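Narrative of accomplishments. A recurring question from our advisory board has been how the design workflow behaves on a single, concrete structure rather than in aggregate. To address it, we present the structure tokens for one chain from the evaluation set, followed by the sequence designed for it. No filtering or post-editing was applied between the two.
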């Protein structure tokens, strides 16, 4: 009788669809033959991270940040912009009167109307980066233009802090300061993009 109960439990249908799907999940062995996954209750392992893949992901993320705010006069895709950051991110312009600390929506409210009225293109011209484990810091030197091929009207440095999350690399903070006649960008921050 105990044996019959055990068999009945073994072949009983799953309590819900998700459980049923997990129990029927197959993987393929080295011989190419399917078999039941040995750890059905564990989430799949994340993709293997290497220094090269982390570097590529950070490069892509920084590129997306610049691309998200650049373009002709008109609205930006602010939903896509938000996805580049952790929700608690801060964007902080630093001027003569000190820092202005903005959350993501605060930055959108401040910069969005100007971008809607006039073209704005910001591009990275140099980079200095350091990374340790799940944190990275990038000094990204930028130029700003109103049209792609015109002379820049401003340049400065974005200090970008990045963190690795369950969704991959994301921006934690961007703090930036524009160049002024009395505060020129040092030559060491004008080298080609890349790690130093």
């Amino acid at each position: 009788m105990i044996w019959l109960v055990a068999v009945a439990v073994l072949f009983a249908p799953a309590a819900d669809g998700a459980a049923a799907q997990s129990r029927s999940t197959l993987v393929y062995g080295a011989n190419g033959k399917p078999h039941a996954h040995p750890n059905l209750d564990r989430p799949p392992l994340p993709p293997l991270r290497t220094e090269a893949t982390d570097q590529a992901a950070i490069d892509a993320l920084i590129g997306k940040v610049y691309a998200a705010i650049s373009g002709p006069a008109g609205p930006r895709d602010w939903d896509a912009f938000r996805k580049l950051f952790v929700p608690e991110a801060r964007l902080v312009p630093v001027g003569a009167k000190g820092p202005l600390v903005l959350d993501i929506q605060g930055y959108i409210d401040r910069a969005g109307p100007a971008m809607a009225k006039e073209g704005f293109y910001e591009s990275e011209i140099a980079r200095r980066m350091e990374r340790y484990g799940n944190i990275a810091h990038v000094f990204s030197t930028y130029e700003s233009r109103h049209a792609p091929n015109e002379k820049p009207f401003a340049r400065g440095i974005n200090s970008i802090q990045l963190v690795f999350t369950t969704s991959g690399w994301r921006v934690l903070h961007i703090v930036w300061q524009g160049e002024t006649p009395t505060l020129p960008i040092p030559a060491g921050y004008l080298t080609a993009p890349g790690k130093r």
